[in-house]
Design goal:
Elements lengths: L4 E7 L9 H7 L1 H20 L4 E6 L14 E5 L5 H14 L4 E5 L8 H10 L5 E5 L5 E6 L17 H9 L5 E3 L23
Parallel strand pairs: 1-2, 1-4, 2-3, 5-7
Antiparallel strand pairs: 4-6, 5-6
Helix pairs in contact: 1-2
Amino acid sequence: MKNKNLLILFTRNPELGKVKTRLAASIGDQKALDIYKELLSHTQNIALNVNADKNLYYSESVVNFDDWDETIFSKKAQRGNDLGEKMLDAFKDGFSKGYEKIIIIGSDIYDLQTSHICKAFDDLEKFDTVLGPAQDGGYYLLGTKQLIPELYKNKKWGTESVLKDTIADLDGLFSVSFLETLNDIDVISDINPDSYLGKYL
């Protein structure tokens, strides 16, 4: 452990037909994969400048010698039956190693910037938790200073109730800071035709 801060990145292995399936229904598997690779590249670039150790969790299996520098990103495989179990496992691992602030992000937010992640770590100086709300009712970032198992249980992952149910778990027990709401890329309407990703439409 080099740092007291840990940034966890959850990604999907970029395989044709297995990523961005809702988006692929509109534009095809290849374009959906191309967009996801763009999102992965963006996520990597914004993570590089964050002052934190970095754990990269693959959805299926660890890939060596890909675009993620193994001297910067500690590579692991997600473990658990659903997203909640996988996140809980990652946070448990981080806190067990002595990290004091842990933040997790996904790889679906093209609007996410280094500044959002840095602000989240700063907010954890004053707040118990930090959330980055997504427009679809989920969240693109979660940060805590201690393990809070309830946050990862009894959620309908991938639905519009996730953020609301997570806030309910925190209410009255833990202070929470909210970042600005951002849009994640799940369906074709999430992509601005005039944006960089619009070239794939």
